[in-house]
Design the sequence.
């Protein structure tokens, strides 16, 4: 208590610059005067009386000093003093200060930027109540690692039989056309179990959540997103109980969600949520077909249950179901439960950690540069430091002083770096686009600034400590006596070690970046199997309630009219558009080698209209394309791709053979046997796919119950120019159908490449920065070494050494450093590059070409950086060098 | 000549407080003289050491000081005990009393009484 009181009094004194000194002085004078008077009274001579008074009092100076250290905060005062001194010193060498601060600003700015993204994606909890208790459950196969969605019957069994979850909720996306207002609107929706909101722990801002009864067949209720409520219903508080027309079905609005609500977190936007009752149609088998896997499941763990326990629980249930339903569940005999955040992040975590490490390495290299600059300065400041210790500065005081100097530098760099982050974060976010979930929430906030501060302090201590300790070891006597440069070699070894480390880190970073660049170039130039330019794509729906009977003729007429638009070369439709993250996988039966239902092979499926391969410019290797003559009443046919033929008909001619894909056409008797009529070239399904996938195509006209076709238009003009005409055409055929996702094929591909591109650009930028810093550092070290060896080189030249010899001498010194760094860096790269496996496509993680190129680049730029100092060395004037010290 | 004993700071603070309690407000020189007198000139204290102690006590709030006029009509700074100082003095006196009693017992202990 007393100590606290004293501290505050001291703090106040310190802050107010209050000094008791004058008062003390007056008191002491008083004291001495009184004592002198008394001594006089005792009969001393005036001089003796004064002398005795002073003797009795003791040292006035030490009393004053003691009082001074009592009254204020001496440590803080000392630090403030050192700080002023540091600022003065730094101001005296502005070029050093500017170089150091700019270097640090780049390092810290890059770190703060990356951290702002990492913070938003990795560190921030999911925006639900107790998010760490939320998990994602998937169906999987016990043999492989392959994971898949759930079917409704499986989900219902999981929900009923588990002992791990207080709630287990199914969800999958769908889309509707909202009509009734001026213009039809496309809305993204999620079909969920009734207890979505209780599971997430979130309440609507208006109305109520779903009830268990609302999962019953025929129920049509909807929760609106805040955005949809505002945009379509002018935030009308009377919306509750109103009905909506969604793709011709009537829904009742029961609530409005908060503006911040997002579910699922990975979807760019969701406009409304409804219950799984909409999947329970009298005609379809959506909720009863155990083989139809399209559900995601998210659960909240019961109190006390761990993720591992839940995982075991679900695995047991899945195994039981596989035994119970061997026909459908043999390939889904296991399950996997992982924390929701892990499920959301997926491979992104590796990507971000790699980038975070990369940017940390950049900062380390920057710190190395500054440490080297400081080491050089310490050599120059030996006399000053020796002088300070001569007048009584302790070693710790000198270390403190020099550390403060580095901290001032790092704070300058940190401030500039955080300012930089404000500008660079939006640039990085644009680069990331939608490719990483939650990235859009990133921004420079308090956490990021706190991180910047922490990095700043760590950096300041990192690059300041070694030079400071080195400096404090200065041998006082010899330095002051001789004033010459002795005992330098140890420090030079340190500087060399720093440079070698920097080169090694530079190699590691450049190797990583090189691998990503090679991956990206490969991805971007990979043979697609179709021509991507002059291809416009867009979507619209043909809702079941109006088109279930007329879909085929509607599409036929639509594509005919589309082809008639001037500028359109050809046009067709496909259910699965490449490069658009569309996916469908359906099993098939080969009647020649029948298998039990649970063990059927499956492959990518797509429904297409005639002319699709022509529009995409995919070669038909054998056989014929679908034609308008392939209708519901003609022979059921199919087309397979080259990979399919290779895999399932090796060494045979598949054309004319028959398969039975599990794709029902709505007629009794189940899916028909289909005759293969052609083999086409392989189409690259996604930019990041690792190998060609077997796929087969069915004529859409033979399966009119399947919705819907994406339009693919091959144009002879700029594809965007046809947008209005295409929209007009769809509106003229049905005014209630909105056209969505209008994009050219190169645009779709660019979106798919955004994650590899973002990884490549960031890592490439960091590698470039690292290389630049390393080269600058090497240049500085060589320059300094030449300056220090001026006398020696002068002597050599005076004794007749040729200039080329001197140049060679310097270059050899630089190459030794470079070689050591490169060797170290290569070893590290080989050890660590396997981390990047998931980020690479078509490039081995130890690609020798990439590594060789990187080493060559580092060696060349390094030697280039040493060239100038070498020339400087050769141009030393021997006489001058020998005369001056 | 009798050996003069050194004084620890804490002890000096206690003496200052006690002196102020007994004699009322005093200036620094007066305090130094009284402490010398009371201790019978057995203490060897540089009078100057009193001032850091006074400053510390003032910061702790045990004493307060004001300018006043000394006997010879000069300006002098007078120190007086505050209420907190009185409490502190009492606490420290109790502590001393206890310590000295315990020490006294040990010093007077006889072998037969402990066996």
Sequence:
């Amino acid at each position: 208590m007393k100590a606290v009181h004293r501290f505050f009094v001291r703090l106040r004194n310190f802050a107010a610059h209050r000094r008791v000194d004058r008062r003390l002085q007056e008191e002491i004078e008083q004291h001495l005067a009184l004592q002198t008077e008394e001594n006089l009274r005792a009969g001393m001579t005036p001089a003796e009386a004064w002398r005795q008074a002073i003797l009795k009092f003791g040292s006035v100076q030490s009393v004053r000093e003691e009082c001074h250290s009592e009254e204020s905060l001496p440590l803080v005062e000392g630090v403030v003093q050192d700080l002023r001194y540091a600022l003065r010193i730094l101001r005296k060498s502005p070029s050093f200060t500017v170089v150091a601060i700019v270097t640090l600003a780049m390092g810290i700015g890059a770190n703060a930027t990356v951290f702002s993204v990492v913070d938003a994606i990795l560190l921030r909890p999911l925006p639900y109540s107790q998010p760490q208790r939320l998990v994602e459950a998937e169906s999987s196969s016990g043999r492989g690692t392959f994971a898949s969605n759930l079917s409704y019957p499986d989900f219902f069994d999981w929900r009923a039989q588990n002992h791990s979850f207080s709630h287990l909720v199914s969800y999958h996306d769908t889309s509707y056309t909202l009509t009734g207002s001026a213009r039809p609107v496309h809305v993204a929706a999620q079909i969920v179990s009734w207890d979505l909101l209780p599971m997430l722990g979130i309440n609507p801002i208006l109305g109520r959540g779903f009830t268990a009864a609302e999962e019953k067949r025929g129920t049509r209720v909807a929760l609106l997103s805040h955005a949809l409520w505002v945009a379509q219903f002018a935030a009308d508080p009377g919306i509750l109980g109103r009905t909506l027309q969604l793709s011709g079905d009537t829904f009742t609005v029961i609530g409005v969600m908060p503006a911040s609500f997002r579910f699922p977190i990975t979807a760019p936007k969701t406009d409304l949520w409804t219950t799984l009752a909409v999947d329970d149609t009298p005609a379809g088998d959506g909720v009863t077909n155990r083989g139809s896997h399209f559900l995601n499941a998210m659960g909240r763990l019961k109190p006390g249950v761990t993720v591992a326990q839940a995982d075991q629980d679900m695995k047991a249930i899945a195994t039981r179901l596989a035994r119970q339903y061997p026909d459908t569940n043999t390939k889904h005999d296991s399950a996997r439960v992982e924390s929701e955040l892990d499920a959301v992040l997926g491979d992104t975590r590796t990507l971000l950690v790699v980038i975070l490490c990369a940017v940390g390495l950049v900062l380390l290299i920057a710190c190395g540069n500054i440490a080297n600059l400081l080491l050089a300065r310490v050599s120059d400041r030996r006399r000053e430091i020796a002088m300070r210790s001569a007048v009584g500065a302790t070693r710790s005081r000198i270390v403190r002083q020099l550390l403060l100097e580095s901290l001032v530098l790092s704070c300058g760099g940190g401030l500039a770096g955080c300012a930089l982050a404000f500008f660079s974060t939006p640039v990085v976010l644009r680069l990331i686009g939608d490719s990483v979930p939650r990235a859009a929430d990133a921004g420079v906030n308090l956490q990021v600034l706190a991180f910047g501060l922490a990095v700043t302090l760590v950096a300041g201590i990192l690059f300041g400590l070694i030079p400071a300790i080195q400096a404090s070891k200065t041998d006082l006597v010899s330095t002051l006596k001789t004033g010459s440069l002795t005992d330098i070699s140890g420090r030079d070894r340190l500087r060399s070690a720093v440079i070698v480390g920097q080169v090694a880190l530079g190699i590691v970073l450049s190797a990583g970046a090189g691998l990503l660049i090679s991956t990206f170039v490969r991805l971007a130039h990979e043979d697609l199997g179709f021509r991507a330019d002059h291809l416009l794509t867009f979507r619209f729906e043909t809702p079941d309630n109006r088109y279930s009977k007329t879909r085929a003729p509607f599409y036929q007429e639509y594509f005919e009219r589309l082809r008639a638009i001037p500028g359109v070369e050809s046009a067709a439709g496909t259910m699965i558009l490449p490069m658009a993250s569309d996916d469908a996988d359906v099993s098939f039966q080969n009647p020649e080698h029948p298998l039990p239902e649970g063990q059927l092979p499956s492959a990518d499926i797509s429904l297409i209209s005639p002319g699709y391969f022509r529009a995409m410019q995919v070669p038909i290797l054998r056989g014929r394309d679908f034609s308008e003559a392939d209708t519901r009443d003609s022979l059921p046919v199919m087309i397979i791709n080259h990979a399919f033929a290779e895999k399932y008909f090796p060494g045979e001619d598949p054309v004319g053979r028959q398969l039975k894909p599990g794709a029902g056409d709505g007629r009794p008797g189940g899916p028909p046997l289909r005759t293969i009529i052609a083999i086409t070239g392989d189409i690259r399904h996604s930019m990041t796919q690792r190998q060609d996938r077997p796929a087969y195509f069915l004529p859409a006209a033979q399966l009119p119950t399947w919705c819907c076709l994406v339009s693919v238009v091959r144009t002879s003009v700029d594809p965007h120019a046809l947008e209005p005409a295409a929209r007009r055409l769809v509106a003229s055929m049905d005014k209630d159908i909105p056209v969505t996702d209008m994009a050219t094929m190169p645009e779709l591909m660019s979106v798919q490449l955004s994650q590899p591109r973002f990884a490549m650009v960031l890592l490439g930028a960091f590698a470039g920065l690292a290389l630049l810093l390393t080269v600058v550092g090497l240049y500085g070290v060589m320059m300094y070494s030449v300056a220090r060896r001026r006398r020696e080189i002068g002597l050599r030249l005076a004794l007749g050494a040729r200039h080329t010899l001197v140049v060679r001498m310097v270059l050899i010194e630089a190459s030794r450093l470079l070689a050591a760094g490169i060797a170290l860096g290569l070893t590290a790269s080989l050890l660590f590059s396997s981390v990047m496996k998931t980020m690479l496509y078509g490039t081995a993680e130890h690609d020798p070409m990439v590594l060789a190129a990187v080493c060559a680049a580092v060696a060349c730029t390094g030697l280039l950086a040493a060239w100038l100092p070498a020339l400087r060395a050769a141009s030393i004037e021997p006489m001058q060098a020998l005369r001056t010290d | 000549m009798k050996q003069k004993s050194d004084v620890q700071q804490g002890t000096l603070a206690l003496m200052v407080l006690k002196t102020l309690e007994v004699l009322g407000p005093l200036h620094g020189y007066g305090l130094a003289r009284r402490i010398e007198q009371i201790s019978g000139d057995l203490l060897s204290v540089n009078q100057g050491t009193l001032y850091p102690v006074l400053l510390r006590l003032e910061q702790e709030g045990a004493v307060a000081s004001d300018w006043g006029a000394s006997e010879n009509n000069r300006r002098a700074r007078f120190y007086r005990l505050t209420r907190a100082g009185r409490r502190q003095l009492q606490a420290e006196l109790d502590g001393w009393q206890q310590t000295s009693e315990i020490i006294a017992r040990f010093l007077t202990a006889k072998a037969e009484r402990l066996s």
